[in-house]
Amino acid sequence: METKHRLEAEEAAYDDRVGFGFWVYLMTDLLMFSVLFATFSVLRDNTAGGPTGSELFKLPGVLTETLILLTSSFTAGLGMLAARRGSKSQVLTWFGLTFALGIAFLFFELKEFAEIIHEGYSWHSNAALSSFFVLVGTHGAHILSGLLWMGTTLVFVWKRGLDSNLVRKLSLLSLFWHFLDIVWIFIFTVVYLMAFV
Amino acid sequence: MTHKTTPKHEPHHGTMASYIVGFILSLVFTLIPYYLITHKSFGRNELLATILGFAGLQMVVQLFFFLHLGREKKPHANAQFLLGTVGIIFVVIGGSIWIMNNLHYNMAGMQVMDKVASDEALYEVNGKQTGTCSAGTGTNYKVTITNNMATPNQINAHLCDTITFMNYDSTTYDIGFGTAQNPKLYAGESDMTAYGNHNNPLRLTELGTHTFYDTKENKLTGSFTVAK
Q: Is there a smaller number of Cβ atoms within 10 Å at the N or the C end of chain A?
């Protein structure tokens, strides 16, 4: 009994260390995003005669992306609750749903990029669009890597069942996913909504 | 190791209820600014402040309900780290916008210089009057141009009045100031373009009596006097 307590305490301390380390990573990632936001804010009007954001962006599509991502953040949270309860099937369901919503988000984002390129503009066109594609694309790349991480973790959960190692991985993953949600909220506001002010 | 630990390790996670509340709040804080933007509800600055405020609220919701910030064990290392990061972010983003706006302001071309002059209500730049009269003030004098003739060709006006050259010819005239033999500057400009079939306004920002002429054929001539 004494040993069991000691092991639990050690594991909790390890969880805390790993959690803090991952949080430090998230904060440095946030700093990188803040530099991209600063670049975009400075260059957003430098369209070199090209279309401005309000001529190029379609708000309904962007709202769809935002709602998808918010919902995926919610399902990731429910998946995490299931993981703490130790319910493997619910973890697979909720994180599976999160995974699908992540794919849907990426689909809408790439569709938007494709439409802009189809209209004859790209990151080559002007400084405003360069900074736009870098900022939004970097967020998209994070979503993609989050999906790869989620996919592999879910395969492990499916094959091996929920052990404490995988629960820890899932908790870091959901932290990452909520974090990307926050970054997106600011992209939604600063890049898209502010273009229409 | 004599550290006391709670027997059951229950760190910072949420409950079903807190996730649902967080989710609903995050939807509300997305839809309100979206509605305000699509319906252009208030003036520019109010709208800007409001949507940024909602983004801030949204962030707080996400941090509190989904990332469970502040509910961890003391000493709240994560929250402190976030606070420091947010400080750096304000410096980076705020500083960039501030510096680049100043740069843009100070290194701009003629068009922006005019705006700068009008923003700062400069009456003179380098000894030249800038044309800073507040919009919509002053009398408007009409000069009709037909068959390369200006009528009336003599105008008595006051500072900040406007002369509108209504050019009924299809030809565009280059109206120079002074005379053909002795060209002069008016308010820092050597000439103005009177486009064919257009109204071409000239704001009177320099005092004194001035003549004008058509630089091509020198047929269209006239003068105007600007008093205080």
A: N
Measured between beta carbons, which residues in chain B are less than 8 angstroms from residue A54?
none
Chain B residue numbers touching A23 (CB-CB < 8 A)? 77-78, 81-82
Question: Is B123 a domain residue?
Answer: no
Q: How far apart are CA B59 and CA B57, in angstroms?
A: 5
Q: Do the Cβ atoms of A77 and B19 come closer than 8 Å?
A: yes
Q: What is the pLDDT along chain A (197 residues), one digit of tens a residue?
A: 677 788 888 888 888 889 889 999 999 999 999 999 999 999 998 888 888 888 899 999 999 999 999 999 999 999 999 999 999 999 999 999 999 999 999 999 999 999 999 999 999 999 999 999 999 999 999 999 999 999 999 999 999 999 889 999 999 999 999 999 999 999 999 999 999 98
Give the residue from B71, B89, B113 where a domain finishes.
B71
Three-state SS string over B24-39 comes to HHHHHHHHHHHHHHHC
CA Rg, chain B, in Å? 32
| Domain A2-196: assigned CATH number | 1.20.120.80
- Provide the chain A residues 66-95 that lie in CB contact (below 8 A) with chain B: 66-67, 70-71, 73-74, 77-78, 80-81, 84
Q: What is the CATH number of the domain that holds B201?
A: 2.60.40.420
Domain count of chain B?
2
CB contact under 8 A, B26 and A70: yes
Q: Is A106 on the interface with B (CB under 8 A)?
A: no
Helix (H) or strand (E) holding B80: helix B77-106
**With an 8 Å Cβ cutoff, are B51 and A194 in contact?**
yes
